[in-house]
Amino acid sequence: QVQLVESGGGLVQPGGSLRLSCVGSGRSFSDSIMTWFRQTPGKEREFVAAAARRGGNSWYSDAVKGRFTVSKDNAKNTLDLQMNSLQPEDTAVYYCAAGSRVILSAIRLPGQYDYWGQGTQVTVSS
Question: What is the DSSP letter of 9?
Answer without folding.
Answer: -
